[in-house]
Amino acid sequence: MASDPNNWAIIVPILNEADALPELLEHLQHWRDQGAEVVLADGGSDDASADMARQQGFTVIQAPRGRARQMNAGAKASKARHLLFLHADTRLPSGADQRIDSALGDQSIAWGRFDVCIAGCSKMLPVIAWFMNHRSRLTGIATGDQALFMTREAFETVGGFPDQPLMEDVEISRRLKQIAPPACLQEKVTTSGRRWDTRGSWHTIWLMWQLRWAYWRGTPAEQLAERYQ
């Protein structure tokens, strides 16, 4: 059964995604057929990504480059009561719309995320995903790979994603926790493990823990973004 088209929106920040866009749009078309509002926020692609999406009838807006800025712009352009922020290399599980509706239908819940499965070559990826999911349950902090969702009211209450080039998912989680604990859904989204495969699993794990530790100790996100790049 299709969802109320005004009930939830999928916001996707994109930047030069032409190679992967056909598969992404096919995935998004499924959810659009189920009644989701879909908004792609383009950060200035120069590979015709935006034109490709528009040609298939998707709503595409231009936004200042930066994942946080693009997601904020996409949320502003949407009309739905519930917002889900999806990375371009992440895919939702079957029944995601029903699980979100059920979670946010509880008045005590304002936001949440899915468990994650990481697709790639490294044998470490299932272990990495296990730690990501369990760490998130313990801390109440989610990553963007876990497909954050929230009510529009909660999104506006915390001022949307902070205008920073890295750790925007950690920061908005920290702010949302002040409203309510997250709904940690056991259904898994599937995200790409390309950064672990490309950079090496142990190197990437060590880098991400260093960056998170530095962020919690107050290092500006701008400095961390330079290290991450």
TrEMBL record:
The keyword Plastid does not apply. Its main location: membrane. It is found in: Cell membrane. One of its GO terms (molecular function) is glycosyltransferase activity. Residues 10-129 form the Glycosyltransferase 2-like domain. Keywords: Cell membrane, Glycosyltransferase, Membrane, Transferase. One of its GO terms (cellular component) is plasma membrane. Pfam families: Glycos_transf_2 (PF00535). It comes from the Bacteria. This is RSAM/selenodomain-associated transferase 2. It comes from Marinobacter persicus.
